[in-house]
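Pilot study result, target chain (356 residues):
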Amino acid sequence: MLDRIRTRRDGGTEAGARLTVRLLGLVQDLDTDLRDGLTGRGAPAAARRLRRLLAAGTVVLADLDGRPVAAAGPPPTPDALAALLGQAYEDGGPAHRPPWSAMPLTVAGELSGALVTDGGAGPELTAVAGLVARSLDHAALRRARGRIAQADLRTLRAQISPHFLHNALAVIGARIRTDPDRARTLLGDFSDYLRYSFSAKGDYATVADELQAIQTYLELQRARFDDRLELSVRMAPEVLPVAIPFLVVQPLVENAVRHGLEPKPGPGTISVSGYGEGPLCVIEVEDDGVGMDPALARAILAGSGPPARRVGLANVDQRLRTVYGPEHGLVIETAPGGGTKAVIRVPRFMRGVTAR
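Predicted structure:
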């Protein structure tokens, strides 16, 4: 197939274009097949796709131990495969033992396995092995991003504000004698808040789940503020089932309370809204508190702001960028004395982002 794509510019252009599109589709499908790595469940499909791409009778994907992890077509004998792979791994380059050829797969500078075929050697085998290595590299990067996101979530859980926990318990304790019914309700809210924050949920939750946790958190804060804290929630129904990273909205609300409203004398208001914007889900957390210098907001998102403020917002920004890409980071609109608005704008549907 690779040879057929090398069409002349003067004639055959349309056929060449169709073949190019077909090849690009195969490359994209190969990326999908190998998204779980060389030993993932998509490896057999990748082997079949590679056999068609090389017009070969057999294609084998082998690991570093010399074992065939996936094959399409009759594989070589174990002895022939072992000898071929031994030569390829030792030389770090193509190996040929007619009718078989092997090309090592190098990912991020590390030997990861080999592509074996009876479809001949040469530039085509080298090019296809490069495509496989690229797909494996993408898979490794996706797994690394997932590990980073999980580590960031563990960090956030470990740093859930002791300031808030102390104040919530103090408020509940103060109400036990003066208003035992309210104290009982608040204790239930506190339990629900902790259960959600430290639950064994996956990496994602629905907007509805996050909203419920926020309302529980704010009920505790309203009791602390003697009900001087006003809450406005406007959430469009179409975004409630949207999956978003777990615990990305609550830190924004906590930041609004602690750094926006606590320093402000008198009552304060927090508005939480969500709506669809084409293919995007937009969530906004806005307060009418003291605000901050925009330069400080940029420093906080960069992780270089004051330690007391930078963890939550920087964590949320990093997790959003890790999951959705750099164009979907947290946006903060603020000014001294003008309140603060934090905006999350993420895809409503994205492969791999699913709430459990």
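One observation from the pilot: The first helix runs from residue 2 to 5. A full batch analysis is planned for the follow-on phase.
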